[in-house]
Design a protein that fits this description.
Residues 7-75 form the HTH gntR-type domain. The chain is α+β, with helices and mostly antiparallel strands. Helix content is 28%, strand content 31%. It has a 6-stranded antiparallel sheet with strand order 4-5-6-9-8-7, sandwiched between helices.
């Protein structure tokens, strides 16, 4: 019989701490034992303990604070995002019959309009080959690029970069960043322009965040993001491309339902 070597000490220590975190033995905000305490408890060197802590930090379970030791990260509130959110927002009536303003983001977050904030940056650009393919337009077509950072209760939750054909939005209120946030979001804007969306397509993938995304969304090390590429169509015509909607993966569950 072939002997199976013991797991390295740093992995065994990480397993023990991880189990205690997950079963509530170390609740969010609590400190882990000090390096000296872990060394004594497990009979290992400081380097081994630091390897175990680094592993947990890379998994997004703990964070090390200067002068404050190693602390269990608070678990972010997870929101469920379903495709029918587009239908729910599209059905909100306009005019005097309309209720409080809403968008797909406020619907997902279950927040009021006064709890919603949107940072935005607009620029004119031209379609690269990938965008041209998504729009089904020639390379070099002029587009409006809009980068948004979405906040719920002053916490950054999502980044999106979307594009609209300049010949559709140029000179309209949709191209004015001072008009944001716009009740109803992009759905309402396209309807305002006379092209109400009839179809929404999304492609979802996971990846590691860029340094800018990590900083903007205040993410812990080791947490991936969900990146959603979206197209909104009105009839056969692609009216909007979002490349991408970026959400920390530990803050979202994507729900999809198919009627058969």
């Amino acid at each position: 019989m072939i002997a199976v070597p013991d797991r390295p000490a740093y992995l065994r220590i990480a397993d023990t701490l991880r189990d205690r975190i997950r079963d509530g033995g170390y609740p969010p905000g609590s400190r882990l034992p000090t390096i000296a305490q872990l060394r004594a408890a497990h009979g290992v060197s400081e380097i081994v303990v630091r390897q175990a802590i680094a592993l947990l930090r890379g998994e997004g379970l703990v964070e090390t604070r200067r002068g404050g030791g190693t602390v269990v990260r608070a678990r972010p509130r997870v929101r469920r995002v379903a495709m029918d959110r587009y239908r729910a927002v599209a059905r909100v009536p306009a005019g005097p019959a309309a209720g409080p303003p809403t968008t797909t983001f406020t619907h997902d977050q279950r927040i009021g309009w006064d709890e919603y904030r949107l940072d935005r940056r607009f620029a004119r650009t031209r379609a690269d080959p990938e965008l041209a393919g998504l729009f089904e337009l020639p390379v070099g077509t002029e587009l409006l690029r809009r980068r948004f950072v979405f906040y719920a209760r002053e916490e950054p939750q999502q980044i999106s970069v979307n594009y609209l054909p300049w010949d559709l939005v140029g000179g309209t209120p949709v191209a004015d960043p001072d008009r944001e946030p716009w009740p109803g979001g992009t759905l309402a804007q396209l309807s305002y322009l006379g092209h109400p969306p009839t179809r929404v397509e999304e492609a979802v993938r996971a990846r590691m965040p860029t340094p800018e995304e990590t900083e903007t969304l205040r993410m812990a090390a080791g947490v991936p993001v969900v990146a959603i590429t979206r197209r909104m169509l009105s009839g056969p015509q692609v009216m909007e491309v979002c490349r991408d909607i970026v959400i920390p993966a530990d803050r979202v569950v994507l729900d999809y339902a198919i009627d058969l």
